[in-house]
Amino acid sequence: MQDLELTLNRVEQALEQGAADEAVRLLRKLLADNPGHLEARALLGEALIENGQLQEGVRQIEEVAANDPQDLDLQYTLGDAYFELGRPDDACRVYQAILAQAPDQVDAQVSLGLVHYHQDRPDEAEACYRKALESAADSVFALNSLGDLCFAQGRTAEAKECFERALAIDPDDPQGHFNLAEFHYDNGDLPAAEHCCREAIRRDPQFAFAYLTLGNLCLDQELVQEAVQCFQNFLRLEKSPDAGEIREEVAALLDGLRQET
User: Fold this and answer.
1) CA 22 → CA 31, 102, 174, distances in Å?
2) Which of 112, 123, 174, 189 is the most exposed place for a label (fewest CB within 10 A)?
């Protein structure tokens, strides 16, 4: 039992450090000896998803979640995996099931809004975000999501207010710093954008899209070597199927930059 707990602790550490492949290796070895260990199977599903093996990861979580539909953490993991895998109807079903079971789950309300937003239903998305904020005015997740929507619609003052409110509530939230970086970048304030981008990465060294934005900022300032490093980090960290096209674009850009240097 002690060895099992030690292995699970090592898995958690590997996931926190972004070493999903190591977590998968440890969990497969553990499950070879303990095939019925549900916590390890759930962790394997998460680790596989983090490692870009979404289909297998989702299958693992589906099987474990079916055994314990009351485990909201598992349901969230399953819904998020469906969303990342491009299965919005399944993601909606899971988030709605969470809300039916626990109406006070603000994160499920926001996640439902995100699905609507990515399905080009901005009105439904905004309704979800605002409903979440009615229940929890300090929801950083809801504020950042509403800010993104306002930003995309050109409602810049509202977007900035949402991002700043979110950061005031949680100054250590990397997503909040990244959102402000994007806002400043779009408005041509490169120093402010760079500062916010570096703050996001300082708080979350695994934040793939912060490296992408920082790479573009470095290119704009002719800091080519640092831009190359940022783009390499982006490609190392971003494994989502939805990011396939942008990964190809970044890889092509990297090839061009290497040829120039």
Assistant:
1) 14, 35, 25
2) 123
Which residues have C-beta within 8 Å of that of residue 13, sequence separation ≥ 6? none
DSSP 8-state assignment for residue 206: T
Quote the pTM value. 0.82
Alpha-carbon distances of 200 from 52, 70, 122, 235, 237, rounded to whole Å: 22, 34, 26, 17, 15
Reduced to 3 states (helix: H, G, I; strand: E, B; else coil), residue 172 is coil
- Residue 260: what pLDDT? 73
Cα separation, 259 vs 21, in Å, equals 31
Structure tokens that stand for 48 in this block:
């596989």
Q: How big, in percent rounded to 5, are the helix, strand and coil portions of the chain?
A: 80, 0, 20
Contact at 8 Å (CB) between 94 and 75? yes
Please tell me what DSSP assigns to residue 19: -
Distance of CA 147 to the CA centre of its chain: 16
Q: What is the largest CA-CA distance in the chain?
A: 57
CA pair distance 178, 200, nearest whole angstrom: 6
Q: pLDDT of 135-148, one tens digit each?
A: 999 999 999 999 99
C-alpha span between 231 and 256 (Å, rounded): 12
Establish how many alpha carbons lie within 13 A of residue 208's alpha carbon, considering only the half-sphere containing its beta carbon: 14
**Nearest residue to 83 (alpha-carbon basis) of 256, 261, 248, 240:** 240
Question: For residue 94, which of 110, 102, 82 has the smallest C-alpha distance?
Answer: 82
Token digits for 93? 């079903």
Distance, in Å, from the CA atom of 228 to the CA atom of 260, rounded to the nearest integer, reads 11
